[in-house]
């Protein structure tokens, strides 16, 4: 994240599968906020999994 900020990024976005609660908690601790749901983002072992879109802004307004 530091490298992205140092080279001028102002926003970072990611998607995480909704059943990955440990990753979601980590991203939220880092300041990412949930922006939306990507329905049926992947099919794993025959079942569809939604993903959560998250983003982080590198400025004082963290509303991403």
From TrEMBL:
It comes from the Bacteria. This is RimJ/RimL family protein N-acetyltransferase. The lineage of its organism: Bacteria, Pseudomonadati, Pseudomonadota, Alphaproteobacteria, Hyphomicrobiales. Gene3D superfamilies: 3.40.630.30. It comes from Rhizobium binae. PROSITE patterns: GNAT. Residues 1-59 form the N-acetyltransferase domain. Pfam families: Acetyltransf_1 (PF00583).
